[in-house]
Write a structure and sequence with these properties.
Layout lengths: L2 E6 L4 H12 L4 E8 L7 E4 L2 E4 L1 E2 L10 E4 L3 H13 L3 E4 L28 E3 L3 H17 L1 E10 L6 H16 L17 E2 L11 H14 L6 E7 L6 E9 L5 H9 L4 E3 L1 E2 L4 E2 L2 H4 L5 E8 L6 E8 L3 H15 L4
Helix pairs in contact: 1-8, 3-5, 3-8
């Protein structure tokens, strides 16, 4: 018997990726509702051989549904997710609103799948940068024990949505043509530039994106004592985030063993060619499911410390794929 599914925020970058992944992974759907704002209502979107009309999102949109995949922004999830739960659906929410709420599981299926079944109607999907870091980090943590993590991110325009991706293209062309450009999404010059992440700054000097990585990792790993520091940077890349991760362990990590552990880790792929000085790049990860890891090396400045490089598609594993994998486990379709 098929599952009755809605996508909340269907016309956005992640919403469109939901459609692609549900089709690619043969998710057993008996009914699919595409929900978006009033301005998008009436548009049609392709799903396999079918054109589906986008409906306006209302509190009455969820009757008879089993699953809602939500990626329409935190304020929208705050308002509408309770209505979906009340109607009997389970919401897998891709926004930040529910991630740190007590009683709401925050899940990466390769790490803490058991948490899925502790839900009370809502399951939270982690931040994209958190997912990309945690996938290779967790198996190493199990083997050596994390003492401290320092991570720097290089985040693509995709993290700010489809409009930001188009804005980067348009601004780049304007820059090449020597024309002025009026940006509406990204607050700083973006073409041929980079800047510390533009999420709101907090009193302790960390921006919200950096605190998400810190707090969400602790929740997913089930260890509030984990020492983590993050610096998040927006770079002029269309799609796929990169991260430089420095990890001090309790035990001395063996680099060769770390490579073997990561090569056997679900959702992770080692990609590098040391002789050619060739490492994973955003273009390698774009449109791909696994996160790509490499450049493992001992930190020569500190004992028991490992450096590695990881790249992942922010829209796929960093967002839509992780949510679909949660749904697959929830409904036992794989």
């Amino acid at each position: 018997m098929g599952i009755r599914v809605a996508i909340m925020g269907a016309t956005g970058a992640v919403g469109q990726e939901f459609l692609t992944l549900l089709r690619e992974r043969n998710f057993p759907i008996s009914e699919l509702r595409l929900l978006a704002s009033a301005r998008s209502a009436g548009k049609t979107m392709r799903f396999g051989d079918e054109d589906i009309v986008v409906q306006e999102l209302t509190h009455n949109s969820f009757e008879g549904l089993d699953l809602v995949l939500a990626s329409a922004g935190g304020s929208i999830s705050k308002e509408y997710a309770p209505s979906a739960v009340k109607a009997g659906a389970v919401v897998v929410d891709n926004t930040s609103y529910y991630r740190m709420k007590e009683g709401v599981p925050l899940v990466i299926p390769e790490i803490n799948p058991e948490a899925i079944f502790q839900h009370k109607g809502i399951i939270a999907n982690p931040n994209c940068s958190t997912i990309i870091m945690c996938l290779p980090l967790f198996p190493l943590h199990k083997r050596y024990g994390i003492k401290r993590v320092v991570v720097s991110t290089y985040q693509a325009a995709s993290g700010a949505g489809a409009v930001a991706m188009q804005e980067l293209l348009d601004e780049t062309q304007a820059k090449i043509d020597g024309k002025d450009f009026n940006r509406t999404v990204i607050p700083h010059p973006y073409a041929f530039n980079l800047f510390p992440h533009n999420s709101p700054m907090t009193d302790n000097g960390y921006c919200e994106e950096e605190l998400k990585m810190i707090n969400e990792t602790r929740k997913i790993f089930g260890d509030e004592s984990l020492a983590i520091s993050a610096t998040c940077v927006r770079v002029p890349v269309l799609r796929a985030h990169s991260e430089s991760v420095n990890v001090e362990f309790v035990k001395d990590p063996d680099v060769d063993e770390c490579y073997k552990i990561l090569a056997q880790t679900e959702g992770v792929e080692v990609l590098e060619d040391r002789t050619a000085n060739r490492w994973a790049m955003p273009l390698d990860a774009s449109g791909k499911d696994p996160v790509l890891v490499g450049r493992l090396r001992k930190d020569i400045s500190l004992a028991n410390t490992l450096e590695f490089w990881v790249v992942g598609d922010q829209i796929r594993k960093g967002a839509a794929l992780n949510a679909v994998q949660i749904a697959e486990k929830l409904f036992k379709t794989r």
